[in-house]
Amino acid sequence: MTTDHTGPRTPQGPDRSPARPALPGLDTLLPATTELYLDLHRHPELSGAESRTASRFADRLAEDGFQVLRGIGGHGVAASLSNGAGPAVLLRAELDALPVAERTDVPYASTVTAPGPDGHPVPVMHACGHDAHLACAAAAARWLADRRDSWRGTLLVVGQPAEETLSGARAMLEDGLYDRITPPDVVLAQHTASFPAGMVAHADGPVLAGSLTLEVTFEGDGGHAATPHLTADPLLAAAGTVTRLSTIVARETDPAERLVVSASSLRTVDAGRSGNVIASRAVLHVTVRAFSEAALDRAAASVERIARAEAVSAARPPRVTVARLSRSGVTLADADVTASVRAAHVAAFGTSRVTGWPATSATEDFPLLTGAGAHLHGHPGIRGAYWMLGAIGPAQWAAAPGTGAAEKLRSLPGNHSPRYLPSVRLTLETGTTTLVTAALALLTAPAAD
Fold first, then answer.
1. How many Å apart are CA 139 and CA 435, to the nearest integer?
2. Catalytic residue selected from 4, 163, 219, 233
């Protein structure tokens, strides 16, 4: 997942008040949680190749008494701990990392390379915080497993593969995830972002955008670059489409409706790298981000209309398809569940450390695990809550250029940056506490003696 730099509303920094107690027993959890985080950070794995990461996560949950299933939808992990009658609450974290070369200069920085989609080696880094998500979920699971007298119900923990390619949640569901574990009543997830560690941010409406990626293939008649008048150049049609994409937002979209349309890649086919060949085919990828399914559909139709108009100069009309598994829904947390979770976070941290979150144009496949994915799993009543977790330590925040929070937020390395670096202690402390307190707010309290 990527995030923009608008950040949470009016972050004030962590509340250092000693009067507010930490989660009981948190200190005893931190050494093992930190060890797991550092190990995962040093050994990242790309989407679909998360075998070591999945094994470490699954082994940890098995040690804590969970019934663990492995290899669901690839390397997916699903763990269950039943503790009497009550709701089923699922904590979800992601297994995969990104093809990014780390430039943080910390001792535990990744130096891993691995085969990319084309077979060539690429650098790999946890540049989106998934390692922190896994460590916090494992710590929360251990805390709750050790204190079964404080809750009733079924605790589920999922390590999802391939979130970065928006394929992992679908793969797990198609492999029968909710047939193999107790279907959850509620799914909870969090995501690190570049605002002060120790803080938590909740959205009042959408948290993340929905997205789709269009693949537009232009066909022409290639030839020699010395005789372009004898060709029908598909690259010109593709380039013309790229230059006109901005009109979809600027001239066709209500300014009150947030929409992002981006040309993300353009390549020619069958021309190789030769400078004297005009290719006969050009392939353009266009990514659309919006906050409603209707807006996604309208933008996709506009992209196709523009491409067809530009393709008049080529030999044939373009082929426009939605790239496989590229469409994701809007991440819209359930209002009632979010209210309960936010209240639990305010009780744990105080009002100064719990803030608002403006919906960002990042995207996720998390909605598929909730009722929004009922077409895949058949459980329309599953609700979800999703919040953002501050990850920037005090020293990094203080050193960031800018005199105010807005300026600092714009200058800090964001998710997917090679310099993205969560504060280890504060992120893990806060992220573990957010998951535990959220789960306790939704599980059934034990009956009084």
1. 9
2. 163
